Amino acid sequence: MGKFTVVITESPYGREKAYTALRFAISALVDGHEVNLFLVQDGVFVGLKGQTPKQYPNHFELLKDFIEEGGKLRICGVCIEARGIVKEDLIDGAEVVGMHDFVEWVAESDKVLMF
What we know:
By secondary structure, the chain is an alpha/beta fold. The protein has helices at about 15-30, 60-70, 75-80, 100-110, and strands spanning about 5-10, 35-40, 70-75, 95, 110-115. The longest helix is centred in the N-terminal third of the chain and has 14 residues, at about 15-30.
């Protein structure tokens, strides 16, 4: 099986990119692939705790499913700081990292997908 790094750059609920990325990541895990998920730019908002949208799929619940299936989640530290987010605001299991960690994941991956 392959190793994917999935990158989410857009916030949840504005468009469907984050939702599609999460569905892909979970499906790949279930199919036996190793999946890394990196949240960067406005994509860091996908990692916030306590999301309860009424008319959209719940990204927080999808992210919890991803982690429970064995996916690895990293979130850009510079990006959360720029947006006033602190680690305590993020889903449990997220690792706040820098760009060198992202580079490492990309270098180790068979495929990198940007959403």
